[in-house]
Write the structure tokens for this entry.
Amino acid sequence: MSAGEKAKAKTEQAVGKAVRKAAHAMGNETTAAKGAALEARGTARETKEKSKDGFRR
């Protein structure tokens, strides 16, 4: 996995988790759902990059 893509994936996961938790604590479910979606996108990006690494070997 390239370092740039790995960093993007981890950043999306961290930001999504922070947004989700903060919005949930404030009772804003719409923003919490957006944070969860961002976190899921980061996880999907990480999975994609790991699968690409599998084909390179």
